[in-house]
Each structure stands twice: as structure tokens, then as C-alpha cells.
Amino acid sequence: MTAQAWQTLSNRIQQVAPSATLAVDTKAKTMKAEGIDIIGFGAGEPNFPTPGYIVDAAVAACQDPKNHRYTPTAGLPELRAAIARKTERDSGYAVDPAQVVVTNGGKQAVYETLQVLIDPGDEVIVPAPYWTSYPEMVKLAGGKPISVLASVDQGFIPTVAQLDAARSERTKAIIVNSPSNPCGSVWDAKTIRDIAHWAIEHHIWILSDEIYEHLTYDNTVTSYIGAEVPECREQLIVLNGVAKTFAMTGWRVGWLIAPRFFAQAVSKLQGHLSSNVSDVSQRAALAAVSGDLSAVAHMRSAFDIRRQHIEAMLNEIPDVFCPNPTGAFYAFCNVTGLLNKPHGQHSSVAYTSAELAALLLEEAHIAAVPGEAFGAEGYLRFSYALDDKDLIEGIRRFKAWVEA
Ligand code: GLU
């Protein structure tokens, strides 16, 4: 190693951007800790406590020394079985527990899937606006993310014609995320079926991130690709977790469901990467997925009220347009009308949505994630999974800043 080279970090890590959602969240929390009254619409995490029966299961697990040990890498057998039963209940098709791998949050399920699937130069179609970590994880696996932007006029839902135009001989996979982060769109059953048939025809793996499955509004429902088109299950990886459904972001329990040989390969990787997910967290997740969905029904009602408030309030701000989000807990609004013009007490000018987000944080003390993080410049994402009072005050600050 030469004197110049020893401090150089790998190309792999230099090529990826930091997580924008976590960066906004960290910045907002740091400013808060400094005594600045910031309202955070950054990271999407429910503000509700984890339901009591789940916490009780974790407390009991802590007190039993049998849970102070490693578990099998792919997860506790009873948790894998419960996830299989939950999938049959919610998604409507049978899964063998051997197809399930329990991961350290849904994020690790996405990461490991891509590590197992992608060789250098392979392409992954990533419909945009996309969750900020997908393209970076594709790059970390040596692959090439191919972004396909679905416009607001399409309800942010891509067409198969658009996907096919992005397809090449190297297309290995497509990421489907409905209900979607960041747009809150819920893809209709026909689109889901069309994508499955197109993927089957062209031998493309489908990575279906279903983490927001239970958060839909205005009579929309999640269409499960593995139920809509059973023939696609041989090339389908379902990505999911307890974080959003049970307000368990900090417990870090996710999973993937894949063909058996694929699940075994993921388990091999995880055996070298992180071993098992915390035993106590797995016990908590077992209580969550074995129970009913009444806790999420309660949270969904609260989110629905906030959704209606935030959409109405954002649309009252001059030059802001917020399409109706029918899923997840994000409002994704177009702010191009605010760019290149003076706003706020200091007549500050933002030329990009990233600059606008920075100004809103500094001057209006509200944290939102800029569209650049999701492959869609000119937008801001507001997570509405926060307290009602803060939501109203935060959007009031945004409006006051625009109108100052
Ligand atoms: N998925 C959430 C978000 O987009 C959590 C933060 C993250 O891990 O990106 O805000």
C-alpha cells in the first residue's frame, strides 16, 4: 500500500450518497437538542408507542435467560412460522416458513436481497419517485439503478410501457413499492398484474416492498403481486417488517420471503454479516405478527385524519400543490412554484427543492425531505406520522414563511 492510498476509502462507499431521510432527521434532532423548536416531518416513523402487549412480550423475553443467546440465523422458527401464517392471512397465499428470513429491519432485507441477486453491471429498474435507499443499495451491490420517473399526472404510478423502455439485456430486477414511500400512492391491481406478467415474460426478479401494506385510505387497498399473479412467485422477493404496522421502528425487525434456494443464500450472507436479529426483538415481533390488526386499525384512523389535514393545509399555501396521498404516511407536494422567488423574513431565494428544504429548516424551523432524495426534484416530502398539534403548527409555519 502506498502512503497516498492507505487512507483512501473504497470506491464502493465513495459512490453512495448518505441516507437523506436519516440525515434530515438527525439534523432536526440535533437542532432540537440545541434548544431550537424544530418540527420534524423528516423520517417516516409512527409517533405512537409500540402496543402494550408487544412490549410485555419483550419484557418477559428479557427475563428469560433462554432469550439471551443467538437464535438461528434466519430467525426463530416460531417467528418464521408466524410470518408465514400472517402472509397467508393478509396477502392471501401460502408460504413455507423455510422461505422466510428475519432481518435487522426491512432495510436489511432489501440490502441482502440485492447483495444476493446482483452482479457488477446488472441493472435494477427503480420506479421514481423512490425510497432514497433503493438506488444506493443497488450501487453497493455493484449494480446500476435505472430510474423510471412516473409523473404526478400518472398518480406517480409507472406504466409497463415506461418500464419496458428502460429494460435492457442486463435488467435483473424491478423494485415495486406500493403503498409508496415517498408519494403515498397505492398502485392499482391492474398495474400490479401487468408488471408481474411483464417481469415473467422477460425473466426479471420482482422485489416487492410491502412495508406500508396496512396503511391505505379512501377505500384503496394494497394489491399483493404474489396473490394477483401466482406464477410470479418463483421470481418474487417480498420485503416487509413490523416497523410501520406496529409502530416498532426502533426494534429493527423485518423479513423477506423468497423462493427457498434464495432464502438459503440470504441466510448464508446474514451468517457472516449480522447473525440473527436481537432475540428479544424477535419475541416482540412474534407477539406482533401473531396478534390481530386492531392496533394498526387505530393508528390508520389517526393517520387518515392527519392526512386530510395536511393535504388541505398544504394546498392552501400559495404555489404549493399536494396531490391526494392514499397510502403510507407521506404527503409529497410540488413546490416548483416557490423556487427562484424571494420568501421569508429575509427574502431568501431557493433555486432547488433541496435549497428550499434547507431554508425551511433554518428559517421556518420545519424539517421536510427534498424530492432530490427520491429522484424527483421540485418536491418536498412531509411525513405526517407526527402529533396532530405539531402537524398543524408546522404547516402553519411553512405558510407564514411563504407569505412573509
Ligand atoms: N423509511 C423511513 C423514511 O423514508 C425511515 C427512514 C429511513 O430509514 O429511510 O423516512
UniProtKB/TrEMBL annotation:
Keywords of this entry: Aminotransferase, Pyridoxal phosphate, Transferase
Record-linked CDD domains: AAT_like
Matches recorded under InterPro entries: Aminotransferase_I/II_large, AspAT/PAT-like, NHTrfase_class1_PyrdxlP-BS, PyrdxlP-dep_Trfase, PyrdxlP-dep_Trfase_major, PyrdxlP-dep_Trfase_small
Membrane-traversing stretches: none
Keyword Transferase: yes
GO terms classed as biological process: amino acid metabolic process
The EC number(s) this enzyme carries: 2.6.1.-
GO MF annotation list: pyridoxal phosphate binding; transaminase activity
Cofactor annotation: pyridoxal 5'-phosphate
Domain Aminotransferase class I/classII large: start-end pairs: 37-397
Family affiliation: Belongs to the class-I pyridoxal-phosphate-dependent aminotransferase family.
Name of the protein in its database record: Aminotransferase
Organism whose genome encodes this protein: Bifidobacterium aquikefiri
